[in-house]
Amino acid sequence: MTSVTRRRKDGAERPAPAEAQLLAAVERLLKRGEVFTEISVRQIIEEAGLSRATFYAHFRDKSQLLIRLSDTLRGSLVELARKWDPSAGEDGAARYAKFFEEVIAIHRENFATLSALRELATYDPTVRDFYSADLEEFDEAVHKTLVDEQESGSTPADLDTVAASRVIVWGGAQAIARHISVDDGSGDVAFARELGKIWWHGAYRRPGEQPAAN
């Protein structure tokens, strides 16, 4: 697998000033509607007010810059998933809805960056590895909570936790991206509520299989 930049942990080294300027420059270009694949290094350095030499002192290419831009953002989303506790209250669907409202807000605020990441992942192996690795981290976090709940007897024993976590995470990522692309934000609460109910009642608290009648 191609080596990718991994996210820094909380409290770890922050971007150097020039690196931060380059990251902010790309973010501004994307939010203005520029297509990432059409943005040149020249545009980036002019937007940042830096030299080409400075760009290449910090980044090998545009792909590495995009990965770095997405790094902290996606790390914070994974932390949200890891901190979510299914046993923290009875109405898990309602708590999940609030969780998804926060997730959708982050995705909407950073939609241009995440869209560029998804687009580039379709043909750039390095970006694809990074994107897949992050979703796999979400998958692992959700799978762990499902297994823990199953072992406690709260989630039905017949649930296939591996399959369920894949459907939840990989399907959910596509659903959120599609929702944001076609909705102006007025439907975010309703969408979050439906996701919460589907996740909670469809996996965590779905009815177990009943034994066949004799």
Structural write-up:
By secondary structure, this protein is an all-alpha fold. It folds into 2 domains: 14-59, Homeodomain-like (Arc Repressor Mutant, subunit A), CATH 1.10.10; 70-204, Tetracycline Repressor, domain 2 (Orthogonal Bundle). Helices cover 69% and strands 0% of the residues. Helix 8 runs antiparallel to helix 9 (188-204). It is elongated, with a radius of gyration of 20 Å.
Brief digest:
The chain is an all-alpha fold.
Shape: elongated
Spans of at least 5 consecutive residues whose pLDDT stays below 50 are 1-12
Distance between the termini: 53 Å
**Number of extended strands:** 0
Q: What is the name of the CATH architecture of the largest domain?
A: Orthogonal Bundle
Instruction: Output the number of helix runs.
Output: 9
Mind telling me the C-alpha Rg? 20 Å
Number of structurally distinct domains? 2
Q: Mean of the pLDDT scores? A: 86
Helix content: 55-70%
CATH class of the largest domain: Mainly Alpha
Can you tell me the CATH superfamily of the largest domain? Answer: Tetracycline Repressor, domain 2
CATH topology of the largest domain: Tetracycline Repressor, domain 2
| Percentage of residues in DSSP E strands | under 5%
Structural class: mainly alpha
**Major pleated sheet:** none
Order of helices and strands: HHHHHHHHH
**Which oligomeric form is depicted?**
single chain
